[in-house]
Specification:
Blueprint: E1 7-16, E2 22-25, E3 32-35, H1 43-48, E4 57-62, E5 76-80, E6 95-99, E7 105-114, E8 117-121, E9 131-142, H2 145-149
Antiparallel strand pairs: 1-2, 1-3, 1-9, 4-9, 5-8, 6-7, 7-8
């Protein structure tokens, strides 16, 4: 049975990539919390918790289509080095945030540098990745009005 919408959910998790490298974890830190049905977590993770009982643990594999999506070729852009602030040291893998005309923040990664051309990747850093989660469900309860307002 799916987790109903507007529930406060608390989990511990460890996220690994296909190579087994730990990408993120709440273990040893504060548990991760979210409100169900509000698109605060990747869709596959919320679906993976269906039917779990408080205190239960589960290993799940989430394909890109249910995580951060496939790599979108349209999310790459080539710009000139002089479009970066003067004196900027640019390296492949560097992460930056651009500001769109409407004020929206657009994070990107430098994927390639070829002379004065710099290839920017606006895909999520985990786009195209299959994700491996270890999750432990700690709590599910009705969200308070204050939590729903966030």
């Amino acid at each position: 049975m799916p987790i109903p919408h507007n529930k406060f959910v608390k989990i511990n998790f460890t996220l690994k990539n296909a190579s087994g490298e730990i990408l993120d974890s709440s273990v040893g830190n504060e548990p991760f919390t979210f409100i169900s049905g509000k698109n605060n977590v990747i869709p596959g993770l919320e679906v993976a918790m269906e039917g779990m009982l408080i205190g239960s643990k589960k290993s799940v594999v989430i394909e890109p289509s249910h995580a951060y999506g496939e790599i979108d070729a349209a999310a790459f852009q080539i710009v000139k080095k002089n479009q970066f602030p003067e004196g900027s040291e640019l390296n492949i893998g560097d992460e930056f945030v651009a500001n769109a005309n409407d004020g929206v923040k657009l994070p990107f990664t430098i994927k390639e540098i070829n002379g004065d051309d710099v290839t920017l990747d606006f895909n999520h850093p985990l786009a195209g990745e299959t994700l491996f989660f270890e999750i432990e469900l700690l709590e599910i309860r009705d969200a308070t009005p204050e939590e729903l307002a966030l």
